[in-house]
Amino acid sequence: MPRSNGNFRALSMTAAFATAALLIQTAAGNAWSLEEAAAPYKGVTIRTIGEALPPLEAMSALAPEFEERTGIKVEIEMYEHSEAVSKVMLDLNSRRGRYDFIIQPHRELGKFVTNGNVQPVDAFLESPELRDPEFKPEEQLYQGLWKEISWYDQKAFGFPFTALSMYMWYRSDLLTDEKEKEGFKAKYGYELAPAKNWDEYRDIAEWFTRAEEGLYGTALQGKRHEALWYEWLNFLYSFGGDMLEANSGSECGPVIVNSPQAIAATEYYKSLKEFSPPDTLNYFWDDVMALMQQGTVTQLIMWNDATYAVAVDESVSTVVGKMGFDMVPEGEGGRVAQAEGWTYLIPTASKNKEAAYLFIQWMMDYDQQLRQHLNGGATARPDVYASPEVQELPYAKASMAANEVAKPKPTLPQSAQMTDILVRELSSFLADEKTAKEALHRSAQEISALLGSCAPMKYPVE
Asked: Where are the domains of the chain?
């Protein structure tokens, strides 16, 4: 995660001055209120776009309350991940300003910033008219996640819509079944329990693969889609590998995606294909979530913002009350998780920037964050995780642990192209067209050429 820096301290000081001014206003009898701040924008319609998943659905359910209090109407467009990204790119490139704020994966941030497509948030945080004195992101958010998800080149451009990570989902009912435990110990020589390392994960996958019963030990998100890259990163990081040798997502550095650790991680990843459903190379995240909901899979690596649909929502899941959650198994790189997130951003072409900011700020409030999180969100506020309501969720502890050790990924302007390269090469490996070494060497060559002199290959092709 990026460390604190001068710009962040400057922003904090500016925010402190703004807050002090607001407190003086309050003492004088002029307390800040959302209704008063929104009065100049009453009747305005603000439009946004994001991924059609429970966090955005939860936001949509909350928006009418904001509309009633402010007179500002909120229109929300929901699309599948790739379509949500492509529609935003079309609008930003045209500078038409269809969207007053956008909700996008943070790996796109570098491209948006360098193209001048999105606006820093310091002007809003410094505004006594717009800034709610109770909104203190410099205190209320996981600082590492905020700076990784919504900052670029040491400057804040937004706030986390979802602070995402991936961790292990498993069928706790199967792993605690006495007959299963007895049989497993007889075969493998140790107690059946949630996997703490990759050897145990593979043993459990093998033990519970019973195709004739319609049960599989795991499932890979092997489709030629960004879901493949996201899943593979968990193995890469855990085995001690990475894509670039850099300290934060906005930094360039030597290419290390073809290191020995990366090759070992990739070979292990493919070995799990044996214990996955036959169609696993056509799956992405929606497919494996559905398999778990149907009780077809014993364990897999999946997103924290999808846990609600498996562990809580009885209308779509057959395994409510049967699920457990834990960190990604440990490898040479320790127990790590990838830092990912969708972030609130305000385009420079937005026609209603102030109204958009007021809605975002309102959504970042504790009450809205709690309600959104309880309905499938993934908050970046530790105080929400600490609430009794969230602590009762079966996946709360796994989410908190992952947030503490989340590892950044590149947010450089070329990040999307880097992902495309790796998806293509990993797909060729899974399809038996290349070895892991060949696929990762080719990836390293192309990423190095894409990034230029700041990214030499640390492990030259032999």
From this structure: 6-165+340-393, 166-338
- Closest to 169 (Cα-Cα) out of 223, 133, 212, 205: 205
Q: Report residue 8's pLDDT band, with 50, 70 and 90 as the boundaries.
A: very low
Question: CA–CA separation, 152 vs 161, rounded Å?
Answer: 16
Q: Give dist(CA 225, CA 404) in Å, integer.
A: 28
Cβ(229)–Cβ(221) under 8 Å?
Answer: no
**Given 3.60.15.10, 3.40.50.300, 3.10.450.700, 3.40.190.10, which CATH number is that of 166-338?**
3.40.190.10
- 6-165+340-393 and 166-338 have identical folds: yes
Local confidence band at 16 (pLDDT 50, 70, 90 cut-offs): very low
H helices of 28-159, in order, are: 34-38, 54-70, 81-94, 109-114, 122-125, 137-140, 143-150
- Scanning the structure block, which residue is given the tokens 């809580």? 312
CA–CA distance, 74 with 233 (Å, rounded to integer): 35
Q: Please tell me the pTM assigned to this model.
A: 0.84
> Which of 304, 308, 295, 294 is closest to 328 using CA atoms?
304
Beta carbons within 10 angstroms of residue 278's beta carbon = 9
List pLDDT tens digits, range 252-310.
Answer: 999 999 999 999 999 999 999 999 999 999 999 999 999 999 999 999 999 988 888 89
pLDDT tens for 398-435 read: 988 988 888 878 999 999 899 999 999 999 999 999 99
CATH of domain 6-165+340-393: 3.40.190.10
